C-alpha cells in the first residue's frame, strides 16, 4: 500500500555531447526543465571521479537526485558503470517519435561533431547514416566559422542570401577559402551564407539517400535558419523543427528513464 | 604479362591479391599472400608509416603501402605476382615500383568485363610464364578440392549451426588465398579445427551480420561485434577467396569468383547469402582512398537490408566513433 507521503521521484535524461551536455529533467510533476552546459565545464565542475566511480554533483546542478536517469552521447561511456545508457541513435529516435505524429520520416540530427540521418519507417529505425570522417559540416565547424568572421551565431545562422561558393572539402581549408573571399571584398553575410549553404549541401548528400520528403530536423544546427531554408528550397523537403531541437536526444533518454521507472 | 627486373623467381613468390594459386603451386613455388603477411605483423602500423617515409603518398590505400613495406622487410621474396586488372590501379603502380627496384614482377590480368575465353588465355599465359603444363595445374586443382570442400563446410558451420565463430571463419577463409604458404599444414590445421568445432554446441546469435567489401584493416572488429552481441555469419570476400564453387575446371572456378569482375556478380552473391543465411544487416567495409567506396550507394539501392558503412585507413583497433556507430547499428537490428 502506498503511503500518502510518497512523492514521485525526479526523472532525468542526459545527453553528453561533444560540445554541450543537455539535461531534460522532470521534477516529478511532468513539467520539463531543460539545462544546457558546456561539456568541458560539466566534466570539470559537476562530475567527480574517485573511489573507482563517477558521481554527479546534484546540489551544484540545482537538482534533486533523480530516481531514474538514462544517458547517451559521446560521454556516456564515462557514466556507463553507474547509469543505464542508450545509443545516440535510439535516444534521437525516441525523442523524435515523441515530437511528431509521423510514422514515416527522415530524422536529421546535426550536432557538434556529427551528423546523423535516420530513416524511420513504420515507427522503427529502418536504416541510418552518419557523416564521413571529416569535421566540415558539423556544428563545431559552423561555430568556428562564425567566430572567424566575428559574427554572433544567431546572425550567422540567419544569412542565406546570395551565398558564395565554398568547396567544403575540409574544416581547415574552409577558413583559407573564406580569407580569399574576404580579401576580394565579399560582404560578411554572403560568406556566412556560403558556409551555411555548404553545410546544408553536405547534409543533403546524406538525406537524399532515402526517398521520403518529411524531414524532422534536430540537434544544435537545426537552430540555424539558413540551413533550414536551404533544405526546404533545394530539395523541397517538408522540414519540421521541434521547439527544442538541441534537446531531442536528452528527451529520448528522459522517455527511456520513465519507461525504466515504470512511468512511461 | 612481362617479367621485369633482375632477380630470379622463387622459391617464395608474393601475391598482391588472390590469383590462380594452383599455377604457382604446380610450378613448385611457395605462394605468400602479402596482405596476410602484412596484417599478421605486430608492426603493421609502423610499416605503413615506413612506406610513407620512403615516399608513398598518405592519400593511397594502406594495404598497398603495407605490401610495399612487407616486401622491403622480406628480401627472400624476390618475385611478385601483381594483378594488373581486376584489383586496383594502386597495385599496378606498385608493380612498376617493385620492378624498378629489381624484383621479378609477373602480371596477371583478370578480364574486364568478365570473359571466359580471355580468362582461359590469361591463365594459359600465366602457366607458360611459370613453365607448367595444363595437366600439372589440373592435378593441383584436383588435389586442392578436399581443402576447398572443408572450407565450404567450415563456412556452413558458421551460418547454419553457429559452431564456428565469425572471426574463426574470417581467419581460415582469408588464409585460403595462399593456404598459409603450406597447403598440407593448412589442411591439417583446418581438419583438426573442424573436428573440434563440430563438438561445440549450436549457437543462435541474436543478430546475424554479413561483412561485405574488401577485408577490413581493423584488428578487433569481430571481437567487438561479438561483445555487442552480434555474430558475423557471412564474410563476403574471404569466402570468395576460398573459391566455394564445386567446379572441376580451373577456368570456371576463377570465372565464378566475383571480386575482380563487375559489381553485378557480387550483388547476386550477396543477395543469395542474405536469403540463405537469414542476415539481419550488412556492414560494408570500405578502405580510405579505395575506388570501391563508389559502390556503396549501389549496395544501398539494390540490397533491401540495413547497411552500415564503415571506413578504415591504417591497421589499428576500432576508433571510438566507429564503435559508437557499430553499437547503434546492432541496437537497431536487435529484435
Main beta sheet of chain A: 5 strands, mixed
- The tally of helices of chain A reads 10
* Low-confidence sequence ranges of chain A: none
User: From the coordinates shown, what is the CATH architecture of the largest domain in chain B?
Assistant: 3-Layer(aba) Sandwich
What name goes with the CATH superfamily of the largest domain in chain A? ATPase, nucleotide binding domain
Query: What's the oligomerization state?
Result: heterodimer
The largest sheet of chain B has its strands arranged as: 2-1-3-4
- The percent range for strand residues of chain B is 5-15%
Helical content of chain B (DSSP H or I, runs of 4+): 40-55%
User: Quick one: CATH class of the largest domain in chain B?
Assistant: Alpha Beta
Give structural notes.
The complex is a heterodimer of chains A (264) and B (335). With 264 residues, chain A is of the alpha/beta class. Chain A has two domains: 11-89 and 248-260, ATPase, nucleotide binding domain (Nucleotidyltransferase, domain 5), CATH 3.30.420.40; 102-241, ATPase, nucleotide binding domain (Nucleotidyltransferase, domain 5). Chain A has helices at residues 39-46, 58-61, 76-79, 88-99, 139-148, 153-156, 171-183, 188-207, 225-235, 248-260, and strands at residues 11-16, 20-26, 33-38, 47-50, 53-56, 68-72, 105-110, 115-121, 124-130, 214-218, 238-240. In chain A, the strands form three sheets. Chain A has a five-stranded mixed β-sheet, sandwiched between helices. A four-stranded mixed β-sheet of chain A has the order 3-2-1-6. In chain A, helix 4 (88-99) crosses helix 10 (248-260) and helix 8 (188-207) packs across helix 9 (225-235). The longest helix of chain A has 20 residues, at 188-207. The longest helix of chain B is centred in the middle third of the chain and has 17 residues, at 145-161. In chain B, strand 7, helix 15 (296-302) and strand 8 (307-312) form a beta-alpha-beta unit. Chain B is globular, with a radius of gyration of 19 Å. With 335 residues, chain B is of the alpha/beta class. Helix content of chain B is 50%, strand content 13%. Residues 1-5 of chain B have low confidence and may be disordered. Chain B has two domains: 12-142, Rossmann fold, CATH 3.40.50; 144-333, Rossmann fold (3-Layer(aba) Sandwich), CATH 3.40.50.11900. Chain B contains 16 helices and eight strands. Chain B has helices at residues 21-26, 34-39, 44-53, 62-73, 89-100, 116-130, 134-143, 145-161, 166-174, 183-197, 221-227, 236-241, 250-256, 263-276, 296-302, 320-333, and strands spanning 12-15, 30-33, 79-85, 104-109, 208-213, 231-235, 281-287, 307-312. In chain B, strands 2-1-3-4 form a four-stranded parallel β-sheet. A four-stranded parallel β-sheet of chain B has the order 6-5-7-8, sandwiched between helices. Classes of the chains: A alpha/beta (264), B alpha/beta (335). Chains A and B meet through helix 4 and strand 9 of A and strand 8 and helix 16 of B.
Amino acid at each position: 500500500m502506498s503511503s500518502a507521503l510518497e512523492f514521485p521521484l525526479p526523472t532525468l535524461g542526459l545527453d553528453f555531447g561533444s560540445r554541450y551536455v543537455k539535461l531534460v529533467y522532470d521534477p516529478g510533476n511532468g513539467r520539463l526543465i531543460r539545462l544546457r552546459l558546456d561539456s568541458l565545464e560539466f566534466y570539470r565542475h559537476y562530475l567527480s571521479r574517485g573511489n573507482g566511480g563517477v558521481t554527479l554533483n546534484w546540489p551544484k546542478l540545482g537538482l534533486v537526485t533523480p530516481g531514474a536517469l538514462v544517458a547517451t552521447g559521446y560521454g556516456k561511456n564515462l557514466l556507463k558503470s553507474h547509469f543505464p545508457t542508450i545509443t545516440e541513435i535510439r535516444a534521437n529516435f525516441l525523442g523524435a517519435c515523441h515530437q511528431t505524429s509521423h510514422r514515416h520520416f527522415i530524422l536529421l540530427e546535426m550536432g557538434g561533431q556529427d551528423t546523423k540521418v535516420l530513416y524511420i519507417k513504420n515507427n522503427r529505425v529502418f536504416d541510418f547514416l552518419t557523416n564521413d570522417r571529416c569535421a566540415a559540416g558539423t556544428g563545431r565547424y559552423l561555430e568556428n566559422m562564425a567566430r572567424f568572421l566575428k559574427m554572433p551565431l544567431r546572425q550567422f545562422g540567419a544569412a542565406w542570401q546570395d551565398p558564395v561558393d565554398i568547396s567544403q572539402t575540409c574544416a581547415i581549408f574552409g577558413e583559407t577559402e573564406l580569407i580569399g573571399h574576404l580579401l576580394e571584398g565579399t560582404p560578411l553575410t554572403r560568406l556566412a551564407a556560403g558556409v551555411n549553404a555548404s553545410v546544408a549541401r553536405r547534409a543533403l548528400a546524406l538525406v537524399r539517400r532515402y526517398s521520403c520528403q518529411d524531414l524532422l530536423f534536430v540537434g544544435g544546427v537545426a537552430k540555424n535558419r539558413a540551413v533550414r531554408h536551404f533544405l526546404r528550397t533545394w530539395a523541397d523537403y517538408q522540414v519540421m523543427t521541434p521547439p527544442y531541437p538541441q534537446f531531442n536526444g536528452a528527451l529520448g533518454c528522459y522517455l527511456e528513464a520513465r519507461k525504466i521507472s515504470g512511468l512511461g | 604479362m612481362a617479367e621485369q627486373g633482375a632477380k630470379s623467381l622463387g622459391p617464395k613468390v608474393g601475391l598482391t591479391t588472390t590469383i590462380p594459386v594452383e599455377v604457382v603451386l604446380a610450378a613448385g613455388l611457395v605462394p605468400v599472400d602479402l596482405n596476410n603477411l602484412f596484417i599478421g605483423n605486430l608492426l603493421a602500423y609502423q610499416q605503413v608509416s615506413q612506406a610513407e617515409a620512403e615516399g608513398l603518398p598518405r592519400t593511397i590505400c594502406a594495404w598497398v603501402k603495407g605490401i610495399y613495406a612487407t616486401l622491403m622487410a622480406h628480401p627472400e621474396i624476390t618475385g611478385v605476382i601483381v594483378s594488373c586488372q581486376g584489383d586496383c590501379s594502386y597495385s599496378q603502380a606498385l608493380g612498376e615500383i617493385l620492378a624498378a627496384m629489381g624484383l621479378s614482377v609477373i602480371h596477371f590480368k583478370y578480364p574486364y568485363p568478365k570473359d571466359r575465353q580471355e580468362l582461359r588465355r590469361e591463365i594459359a599465359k600465366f602457366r607458360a610464364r611459370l613453365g607448367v603444363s595444363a595437366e600439372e595445374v589440373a592435378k593441383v586443382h584436383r588435389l586442392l578440392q578436399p581443402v576447398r570442400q572443408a572450407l565450404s563446410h567450415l563456412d556452413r558451420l558458421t551460418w547454419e549451426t553457429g559452431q564456428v565463430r565469425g572471426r574463426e571463419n574470417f581467419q581460415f577463409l582469408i588464409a585460403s588465398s595462399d593456404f598459409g604458404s603450406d597447403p598440407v599444414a593448412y589442411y591439417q590445421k583446418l581438419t583438426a579445427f573442424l573436428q573440434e568445432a563440430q563438438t561445440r554446441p549450436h549457437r543462435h546469435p541474436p543478430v546475424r551480420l554479413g561483412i561485405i567489401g574488401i577485408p577490413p584493416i581493423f584488428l578487433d572488429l569481430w571481437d567487438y561485434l561479438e561483445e555487442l552481441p552480434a555474430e558475423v555469419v557471412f564474410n563476403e570476400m574471404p569466402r570468395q577467396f576460398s573459391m566455394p564453387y564445386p567446379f572441376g575446371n580451373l577456368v570456371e572456378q576463377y570465372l565464378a569468383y566475383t571480386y575482380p569482375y563487375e559489381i553485378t556478380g557480387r550483388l547476386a552473391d550477396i543477395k543469395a547469402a542474405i536469403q540463405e543465411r537469414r542476415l539481419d544487416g550488412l556492414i560494408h567495409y570500405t578502405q580510405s582512398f579505395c575506388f570501391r567506396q563508389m559502390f556503396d550507394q549501389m549496395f544501398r539501392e539494390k540490397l533491401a537490408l540495413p547497411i552500415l558503412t564503415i571506413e578504415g585507413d591504417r591497421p589499428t583497433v576500432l576508433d571510438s566513433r566507429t564503435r559508437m556507430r557499430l553499437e547503434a547499428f546492432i541496437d537497431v537490428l536487435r529484435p
